[in-house]
Amino acid sequence: MMYTRKSIAAALLLLLIVAPLSGCFGGTSDSDCAETGYWIDISVDSPYPGLACESGPSKTLAMTIFVYRDNDGVEWLINETSIDTGIVLINSIYNPSGIHFVLDEIIWIDEAFPDVQDNDDGEESEKPSQLNNSGENGADFGDQVQISQLGEEFTQNYNPANVNIVMQSTGWGAYSMFPWYTREYYFSMVRASTFATSPVPSHELGHFLGLYHTHQFHDDPNSDSDLALAFVWAQDWVEPTEQCFRTGDFICETPYDCYIWCEEVINCTANAYESDRPDQEPSEFENCTEEQHNPSHVNLMSRYGDRSEITVDQGARARYFILYMVENERDGNQLVLVE
Description:
Blueprint: H1 5-18, H2 35-39, E1 59-69, H3 80-94, E2 99-112, H4 147-150, H5 152-157, E3 163-168, E4 188-191, H6 200-208, H7 231-234, H8 262-266, H9 312-327, E5 337-338
Parallel strand pairs: 1-2, 1-3, 3-4
Antiparallel strand pairs: 1-5
């Protein structure tokens, strides 16, 4: 094919006209995914920042980690190498969403971590039957360590500008606090023995970053909006156009999940997932079909086995609440990013 100078000039002119407008034809320009677009801008059509972005600038959060001795007061619950390895694992999950964690300080508390079998009166109590089962305020349904049990060194060294993590001994339920409830201490409790190998610490940090379980508000799968149930944070949020941003876990990319309550809600049983829930009792209901119930078994905020991934929507929601914690002072707590 022959090209004349005139045809080449016309092609170049067309290129010069179209290039500046390319972001208007279904794509997302680099400028749209810079600081403001990736971390700040929201609208009713894009209720979390950077939903259309493949990547963007990252922000870094500093960690304060509390380490006690074991229940006998002898060995430290975890060493520095395992802490470093665990942080690498956490970052492997959150880095793709522009969120990075670094270790700021380890507070070595030379005291025995409280035993789950001992209550404040020194009497034995049963160990929790369910671990890492966060409720509406991000706390565990099982046994929780009371602030008074953590001692003065915890309260004196708690850092209201950092992400605070307490390494706990085996037996306690892992849990964390959502960022929008007013409290003096926001921290995540995780098992020291599996910090370097388990996605559960990342799951608990997800609650700290404002992420719900995937089965949140599962009671009414036909609801038009669950925002009234989340009024604590939703009162200052936009009301999204898409229903999936207004219901359940307020994430569009996570399928409906009724977890172990499907019989009550959609009249079928999720016992088909018994490999993830071996403690479930046999059911008289038929197994749910994929059309009825097909949640992700690898989503970090689920309660299934290999939970290790977050969606683009979840990463964007986490960024939204990071800036929420940076911009809002909450009973003396205000997150400070690492420059």
